[in-house]
Structures are given as C-alpha cells and as structure tokens.
## 1
Amino acid sequence: DQQVKQNSPSLSVQEGRISILNCDYTNSMFDYFLWYKKYPAEGPTFLISISSIKDKNEDGRFTVFLNKSAKHLSLHIVPSQPGDSAVYFCAASAGANSKLTFGKGITLSVRP
Amino acid sequence: DTAVSQTPKYLVTQMGNDKSIKCEQNLGHDTMYWYKQDSKKFLKIMFSYNNKELIINETVPNRFSPKSPDKAHLNLHINSLELGDSAVYFCASSQADRVETQYFGPGTRLLVL
C-alpha cells in the first residue's frame, strides 16, 4: 500500500537546466511534505519541506510546489548542478509529530 | 564528530544467527528511529523511541527488538535472521517537536546468506 508514490525511478538533466521531480500521495490526511536527498553510502538528509497550508516553498535553487486537489507535489531544482546528482525521497506526515511515510526515491543525474 | 553513527556499516551473516546494530547520536535529540530500506527501495519506519520509551512500533516481526539504554542510543537486535531481513537499516534522530526533520545515520547493509 504505497501512500507516497514516486513513479519515475530516474531522471537525467543537463547542467544548468531545470530538474523537476514529481511525487503523488493517496492519504488525504497528509498535511506536511518533505524532500530528502541521499548520496551513495550515506543516509538521507533533509532538503526542503512544505505545509499543506501553502502551495509553494522556496529555498535557494530548490522550490517545492504542492497541489492538494491533485495530491501531487514536485521539487524544482534550477539551475541543476552535477553535485545535485543523488536519490531524492519524497515524504509525508499526517498531523504534527507523526511518523514520516517515504516514497521509494528517484535517482537524479545531472550531466556536466 | 558524526551526528548519527551506526555500527557496523556492513554485516554479512548466515540464516538463523542473531545480530545487533548499534546507533548513537550526539545531537541532543530525544527521539530516535529505525528504518528499513528493502530491495524495492522503500524507506519504511520500524520503530521510534522518545526518551527511551517506545512510541512507534510498526508491523515488525518479534525477532526484531530495539533497545534504548539512554536517549542517545538506540540499538537493534535481530534474532533468527532470515533471508528476507537482507536490507539497509537506517537509524535516525530528531527533536520530539520536529519529527519532520530527521537526521539519518549512514546505514547498515545487512546481507543474510
């Protein structure tokens, strides 16, 4: 029962271009969404988050968009850099201080 | 001075054995977690402890027993290992009121033969 879905396993983009990573969810109780980034042989690290009361949150080159009616969020990275090459996990939680439910991740490759 | 550390990083063992994975955090957090990332790459929570008390226990076989001697440590003991236990196990920690921002260890790669 995948409540958080990242249907594309991988994405390859050219350096300097925009990377768009998508995530869908099924649980309407989710009200907080996060993106984590993971390099090989390391644990995931928190990247950016968004509350359901917002539809956009921006932090430098990273912007997360939330479409509640579509139960869809996306992470935009612009401009993409080779150092952004990693696995990106989408995660969600229902209520304050509740557990995180993760997607299975998408591997981003940024070509120099 | 790693924030969340796990030992060992790699663990290869035979079916039926008992093994432990240790986790320590030096961030002063009061909540710690164990996650399992299986072959399908999903990262699923197994347990969560707050100030040494179990607060989340997902549907995990009884062969898995977490132990928290203090709030900086959360160890995972696995009895009678099975092939399906092969996975990467991640420890994480957070403040109780900042569950959304978790700090992960590097993972322990367990292979059961």
## 2
Amino acid sequence: DAMVIQNPRYQVTQFGKPVTLSCSQTLNHNVMYWYQQKSSQAPKLLFHYYDKDFNNEADTPDNFQSRRPNTSFCFLDIRSPGLGDAAMYLCATSSDRYSYNEQFFGPGTRLTVL
Amino acid sequence: GQNIDQPTEMTATEGAIVQINCTYQTSGFNGLFWYQQHAGEAPTFLSYNVLDGLEEKGRFSSFLSRSKGYSYLLLKELQMKDSASYLCAVRAGNRDDKIIFGKGTRLHILP
C-alpha cells in the first residue's frame, strides 16, 4: 500500500547530540511537510518542500534543518537538540501545493532528549 | 495573526451525537480540514470544506461558514473507538500549501 513511512518510531538522543529523523513516501507526492507536536498541542509546521523548493516557517529555530534528496525522501536534522525539542515529529505529504486534498501523515517519530 | 480555537475537551455518551466547534481567524482561507488523532498516533483525515454548507460522510459531517469563520464537526451514533482528539486545520495565507492546526478537542466517550 502507498504510504508515508517514518523511521525510527522512537528516537532517544542526548542533549546537544545531533539527530536525524527520516521520512519516505510511496505516494509520489510533490509536497512534504515536517511538523512538531508537543503533548496536548497542535502540530506546528516547521517547514515544507514543494518538490525541491524549500519553505521555512519564520519561527522555526535555526537548530532545525531539512534535506530532500529526491521525491521520496525527506530528512529532519536537529543540530543540537535541547530538552525543549522533545516532541513527536510528524511527516506529511500532499499531492500538490494547489491541491485541496488532505495531507497524509506518517506515524511520527517520538523524540526524547536526555 | 493566525488563530484557530476549539474546545479543549468534551464528553459524550456512546450512541449519542456530539458537535465539536471550531472558529478561525486567518490571513486568507483556502479550506478547512478536520482530522482525528488517537493518542500517540498520527492525524488521519476526516473531512475537507471549502464552500459554505454541510458535507456528510457516514457518521461524520462537517459544516463551514466562511463569513463567520466557523466550522463544526458532527459525530453521530458515537462509538467507543471515537474517543480521540479532533483537530481543526485551516489552509491559510497567501500560499495554498500552508496548513495551520488548532490544538485539538479531546473527546471522551462514556459507555
């Protein structure tokens, strides 16, 4: 089945130690998103790619970077994780930036920072 | 600024009907989504409204009034599995690809 896959599902890292979260999709969607969701809060958009066009949200910390080497894969790099970065990170895709279709979400990666 | 408001929690009884409201103030509007999210899981799509009126899909219906900046999600014949958070999200701004989520309404279903 076509889907959005995130690895790992659970990630533990140490304060200040770089970590990379990965997302892949078999939907062949042009748009990929990264959201951060803390407990009992709304998913917060960090950035998104339309194809190779990178779009950063104004309030996304510089500590967060992203890469999209091809249509299928997108990575979230946290250069120096702090305790406040512990959250669920959700990857989502949509077929087109002008599409009114829904976003398809991956299962998320829960990040713990020790 | 962008703001989406929905109640934090609601409780309803199995078999009953519940309405979850959402109000929004956004710069631009290109549609409103409702998502269901079970604890520890990713959101799953329920509905999309871009025109005023009611969209019905099985036990779930969603209503939109653009002039009022208002939507609701109506759940009928509630089942225990409907216990979840329900997220209202708006595609907003000048760019169609930006979706802003509300904090979600946690729905508790009692037997």
